[in-house]
What we know:
This protein has 143 residues and is α+β, with helices and mostly antiparallel strands. The protein has helices spanning 40-46, 77-82, 100-113, 116-119, and strands at residues 18-21, 24-27, 33-37, 53-61, 64-73, 91-96. A 6-stranded mixed sheet has the order 2-1-5-4-6-3.
Amino acid sequence: MQRRAVPVVPGVETxxxxxxxxxxxxxxxxxxxxxxxLDPQSIDANIPVTSPGNYALGTVEGSTFYVSYVGRSDGxxxxxxxxxLEKPYTSFKFSYADSARAAYDKECANFHDFGGIQILExxxxxxxxxxxxxxCPICDEVK
Length: 143
């Protein structure tokens, strides 16, 4: 997976919103669509198919998307995002994945890129699907 750094140069605007972890941390790209409002209408309008995928939850302030949480769905990204409607997040970004394995690998990369449990509101390292035996492509952790 190729990662792109988001240029942050004072006085220079970019074509896309800046992306930061809420508590600071690395500046990196999520390679996701959005941000969109985290509400049922926006989820349905932007994710019309049932598919595995990845998401980032957070807030938008000006042209900056602040990442607070990263996650995935192994089969129904739309449904997974709707489980977050009662939480304090107001915006989301997402990307589709070709498979549950691709979604897991990207979730791990996003988790590490944005500072893991030290920075994100995720309370643990991403877990692979039960029984898969997959290890993290970044740190080789296996649950």
